[in-house]
Design brief:
four-stranded antiparallel β-sheet
């Protein structure tokens, strides 16, 4: 049974930091790219950060502020978020995307991040 369980969301003031965690199980972690997406109210879900094949990529809006990392030995992926802005408020989702066909894609249930004073 595939599971992606996010944690670490919450309420933080502008300029603050949060660290999101995603615990994965039920699939071969090392054969999947691990990504973080977010969805704000009234907006489409969009890619925030990706970790694939030893490389990382970020949305322009979070470059220099967010860092994605993964610990393959523990089937964990993290998103370190610094200098948070109100526009970072969203539900953050952990995603696993298979490298190989049929390239299954799995999603977590999401964790709310609210940046507000």
């Amino acid at each position: 049974q595939v599971q992606l369980v996010e944690s670490g969301g919450g309420l933080v003031q502008p300029g603050g930091s949060l660290r999101l965690s995603c615990a994965a199980s039920g699939f071969t972690f090392t054969t999947y790219a691990m990504n973080w997406y977010r969805q704000a109210p009234g907006k489409e879900r969009g890619l925030v950060a990706a970790s694939s094949g030893g490389t990382t990529n970020y949305a322009d809006s979070v470059k220099g502020r967010f860092t994605i990392s993964r610990l393959d030995a523990a089937n964990m992926v993290y998103l370190e978020m610094n200098s948070l802005k109100p526009e970072d408020t969203a539900v953050y989702y952990c995603n696993a995307q298979g490298y190989f066909l049929p390239r299954y894609s799995y999603w977590g249930q999401g964790t709310q991040v609210t940046v507000s004073s």
